[in-house]
Here is the input.
Amino acid sequence: MTSKPIFLYKSDPVRGRLWAEVFHRQAPHIDFRIWPDIGDAERVRYLAAWVPPPDLAHQFPNLELLFSSGAGVDQFDFSVLPPALPVVRMVEPGIVQGMVEYVTHAVLDLHRDMPRYRRQQREQCWQPLQVRTAAERRVGVLGLGSLGTAVLQQLRSLGFDCAGWSRTPHEIEGVPCHAGPEGLPAFLARTEILICLLPLTEATQGLLNASLFAQLPPGASLVQVGRGPQLVEADLLAALASGQLAEACLDVTDPEPLPAGHPFWTHPHIRLTPHIASMTQPLSAAEVVLDNLLRHATGAPLLGLVDRQRGY
Ligand code: GLV
Here is the structure.
C-alpha cells in the first residue's frame, strides 16, 4: 500500500493528462489522479478544480490546499469551503500570454477601425478612414493584477497612450496608474478603449453601467474580459444606440452561453467570443502548481493565494 499524498485534478480530463505528465516527471512522490478516480480519500492533500465537489471537508478530511484551475475564483462558493483551507488562483505564464494576445488583438482591431471596415465590406463600401497613431490612442485597463499589468506592458510597447486603474494603488513603469473610487473619474475621462480585467466581486458586479459609460469620451469602446455579471446589458445597448460607445468586444457574458435570440448575438457593434480570451496552459500551470507545493512544504508564501475577504 502506497502512502503517497494524492493530488486530485477535477477539471477538463484531456488537459489533466498533460498535468499528469509533468507530475510524473517532476514529482514522482505525489500520486496524481484525475477525477473521478479519487483513490483513497484520506490521502487527498491537494485539489485543483474549476468547481470543487460538495462537502469537501468530509470527503477529503486531510485536504491542505485548493487550487482554482483558472484565473478566477468567483465560481467557488466560499461559504461551503473549510474556513482555514488556503485557496490559490491560477497565475501562470500561459494564461497571462493568452490574455495579452487576446486584448492586444482586440485593441488593434478597434484602434484601426476594423469593426467599421467589416461593416463597410458587407455593404460593398470602399471608404478609407483617417489613420491615427497608437500614441494618439488612449487605452485604459481596469484591474492591475498579473493579467492587467502584462496587458499594459504589451500595449505600451506598441506605443499606445496607456493608463491603469485598480482598487488599491499600483505602479507600472511608464503607465500612470489611478486607484480607488476617487481615481476612477480621471481615468475614465481619458480612456477611449476601456479594457475590463477586474475579478468578479460584490464591488465589481454591475460596474460597467450607464454612469461609467457616460464618463468615457463619446465614441469610446469596451473590451470586456472580466466576468459577465460586471456588465449591465441594457446599459451597454443604450450606450451603443446613443453613440456614447462605438463598439464592444465581449468575451464573457451572463449567462454563458447567451440564450438564443439575445440581442448581443447579432448586434452590428458587438463582437462576441465564447470565453476563450485565455486558458490555463496545462504544462506551464503544472510547473507553477508544483512550485507552490514546494512553497507550501517549506512555509514560503504561496503565489496567487486568495484573500477571502477581498474575494480574489
Ligand atoms: C477563465 O476565465 C479563468 O478564470 O481562467
